[in-house]
Write a structure and sequence with these properties.
alpha/beta; Spore Coat Polysaccharide Biosynthesis Protein SpsA, Chain A; 2 domains; 10-stranded mixed β-sheet; about 10% strand
Length: about 475
């Protein structure tokens, strides 16, 4: 059911807009939100916003609750995916991407100057207390902006008392900022072709987008009591998620929830809700301030990096200076060592010259010794020859002495005959004795001489050779 009408009432019953007035349409998706859908639609209508509902085959009274507002600000109810062109299986599985594509298409088909990507458990408000949501969006529109970001605050249950029809503001009094993945909520945009799928619905991407710097207020009530939380997450959401969408982290806020988890929170872990303080904070810390803070943080980081770089550079310069001083000391030490080496080299050269002179003298002495050795060897050879001659002469004399003895013995019988010869022989014997004495003296002199002692080994060798 698709109806193109503007909201007719700021109260659900009797609001009529002037012709050509500014209009805002919220495209809401819901699945089994019977306990809160009526409050959500009523809130939007009271805020001057038309509502178009996409129901994803709810099995409770969600559609019945919504139908009470048809013609009173609810401009249409669509059963998804019946008329969307998507597969019928989308009724049993949570294909968030297909729902976002359907919202993109509806934003081109429905009437409205602005559109809001909306869920059944969301309640949006103006940052100005005296302006409703439609009036505030119109002010943003007239200021030349084309998109609005929302500051999201989650209101978890602090007891298990909530039931359908209870006042949310009195039942849920404590809140906390939305999780990091829900912080970016650019969910309202000026009529234009829009891309919701790329960001998983977290931001409306349009051409030449100008986001209003002050965030609007967004109250979230995804879990209202323990039974509803278990049913919503464990029975309806987790089993129906499309596994292909897991890679995009679109459902990461519900990952890891198990049946034993408690959804009831301790109020001490939350903050008491003060809308005036939150609105003041939204004005004080708007997107421009955050951009300046981010730029300041970046500048401070750059300054810190630069200071660290300067400190490092100073340390490097100090190390370089110390290294230069050390290098100077090393250079001075090297010069001193060079001078010492030069002196050592001169001394070494002098010692080398002295050693060369000593070597030359030693060579001359060696040559002299060689010549002396040659002379001694010559004398030794001469003495050896003399000794051989003496030995031969001694042998000859020994044989002659033996012959004389034989002659003396043979002629002893004839003493008279031999007397004359004996005298002659005695005279000869005396002479021979003198010769022998002289020869013995010569031999003793030879034996006592240095050359004889020096040639002793050679004679021993000769005797051994003769003995062979």
């Amino acid at each position: 059911m698709l109806r193109r009408s503007r909201p007719r009432s700021r109260r659900v019953e009797d609001h009529v807009d002037a012709p050509g007035s500014f209009s805002v349409t919220a495209i809401m998706a819901a699945y089994n939100e019977e306990d809160i859908i009526g409050l959500s639609i009523q809130h939007l209508i009271e805020q001057g916003v038309s509502v178009y509902l996409i129901d994803r085959a709810s099995t409770d009274g969600t559609v019945a609750e919504a139908q009470r507002f048809v013609g009173k600000g609810l401009i249409g109810i669509e059963r998804f995916p019946d008329k969307s062109g998507f597969p019928a299986e989308d009724a049993q599985r949570l294909t968030w991407g297909h729902l976002l594509e359907r919202k993109q298409k509806l934003a081109q088909e429905l009437d409205g100057d602005w559109f809001i990507h909306h869920d059944a458990d969301e309640f949006r408000e103006s940052p100005w207390p005296h302006l409703d949501l439609c009036q505030a969006i119109r002010r943003v529109h007239e200021a030349g902006y084309s998109a609005i970001d929302f500051a999201a605050f989650a209101f978890p249950p602090t007891d298990d008392n909530y039931r359908k029809g209870h006042d949310l503001r009195t039942t849920f009094r404590h809140c906390e900022p939305a999780r990091r993945l829900d912080r970016l909520r650019i969910n309202a945009w000026k009529r234009s072709p829009v891309d919701l799928v790329s960001s998983g619905g977290h931001e409306a991407i349009i051409s030449e987008r100008r986001v209003f710097p002050i965030r609007f207020l967004l109250r979230l009530y995804p879990i209202r009591n323990q039974a509803q939380g278990e049913r919503k997450i464990l029975q309806e959401r987790q089993p129906g998620w499309d596994p292909a969408e897991g890679a995009f982290d679109w459902h990461v806020q519900r990952d890891g929830v198990e049946s034993r988890d408690r959804f009831i929170r301790d109020p001490a872990t939350l903050t008491a809700y003060d809308p005036d303080a939150i609105r003041l904070q939204l004005f004080l810390r708007h997107r421009g301030v955050e951009e300046l803070e981010t730029a300041l943080a970046v500048s401070e980081h750059d300054l810190e990096v630069a200071q660290r770089g300067m400190a490092i550079r100073s340390e490097e310069l100090e190390r370089a200076r110390c290294e230069q001083v050390a290098a100077g000391h090393e250079r001075e030490q090297a010069l001193q060592e060079r001078d010492a080496l030069a002196r050592t080299l001169v001394e070494g050269e002098q010692q080398r010259s002295a050693l060369a002179s000593m070597l030359e003298a030693a060579r001359w002495e060696r040559d002299e010794l060689d010549r002396t050795l040659d002379e001694v060897e010559g004398e030794r050879d001469a003495l050896a020859r003399t000794l051989d001659a003496v030995e031969r002469e001694r042998d000859t004399l020994a044989r002659a002495r033996d012959e004389l003895r034989e002659q003396r013995d043979s002629k002893a019988r004839t003493l008279s005959d031999v007397q004359t010869q004996r005298d002659a022989l005695a005279h000869s014997n005396n002479e021979l004795g003198a010769d022998l004495a002289r020869l013995q003296a010569r031999i003793d002199e030879l034996l006592s001489s240095w050359s004889w002692r020096a040639t002793g080994p050679a004679r021993e060798v000769l005797r051994r050779l003769r003995g062979r």
